[in-house]
Amino acid sequence: MTLFLDAVGTLFGLRESPGHLYSRVAKHHGIQVHPDDLAKHFGAIWKGAAPPDYGAAPDAAAREAIDQAWWRSIVHKTFRVSEASPLDTTFEACFDEIFGIYGTVAPWKVYPDTLEVLPRLREQGHRLVVLSNFDQRLETVMDALGLRHLVDQILYSSSLGACKPSPEAFSRALAKSGSTRETTLHIGDDLDTDGRGAAAAGLPFFHLRRPEIDLKDLESHLLQDAQK
User: Fold this and answer.
1) Which of 3, 34, 55, 123 gets the most CB atoms within 10 Å of its CB?
2) pLDDT digits over 143-184, tens only?
3) The dihedral sign for the CA sequence 140, 145, 134, 74
4) Is the Cα dihedral 12, 34, 137, 60 positive or negative?
5) Residue 124 DSSP SS3
């Protein structure tokens, strides 16, 4: 079976809220803003944003630029509604630093069950494909976290030209991985992006709900299915 695995919230997560990291970086650039204000507003702004519109972007490089502009808009709005000051003069340098940091190992932590379960899933014959709404930085992050060698393929929205929950993202992931709907299970932590998207694409879905349900529970689920 092919397992489509979401990345953030499924294989690894944040060490701290974006608001607190944003606030520290902002201070380096002379921008004063309270981390709790940033943390309070970031989630709603990020969740409420329409996904990147790749439109007629001719290639992956153009889609990467669209992704970065999308993140710039989210971060700028978060700073603005959090009453960051001064904002206009040094925001670009501040954003560039923030964007770069999230492409490194620094903000991320690997869930212990990820390192334990992924090798066993491959030993059991499953093909592991990361399917994420991240961007090209995911390649570097997975390398730095020691996860890249544990999966067979890494796919993300800018490489696919579509974002979850769009069925097109799943269809293109199936084509790129050589998988079929009948032999693929999608795993993720977000009922909207992962669950609704998988359903719309005709894929079964396993919902991770950390800490109650993690990858060990997925492994048990797959073993039970195999014994039926």
Assistant:
1) 3
2) 999 999 999 999 999 999 999 999 999 999 999 999 999 999
3) negative
4) positive
5) coil
Q: Write down the H helix ranges in the chain.
A: 18-28, 35-48, 60-81, 91-101, 112-123, 137-144, 157-160, 167-177, 197-200, 215-227
190-199 per-position pLDDT tens digit: 999 999 999 9
CATH no., domain 2-13+108-227: 3.40.50.1000
Per the CATH hierarchy, to which homologous superfamily does domain 17-101 belong?
A: Haloacid dehalogenase-like hydrolase (1.10.150.720)
Three-state secondary-structure class, residue 164: coil
What is residue 22's DSSP assignment?
A: H
With bands split at pLDDT 50, 70 and 90, how would you rate the model's confidence at 226? Answer: confident
The single-letter DSSP state of residue 128 is: E
User: Could you write out the DSSP letters of every residue in 175-226?
Assistant: HHHT--GGGEEEEES-IIIIIIHHHHTT--EEE-BTTTB-HHHHHHHHHHHH
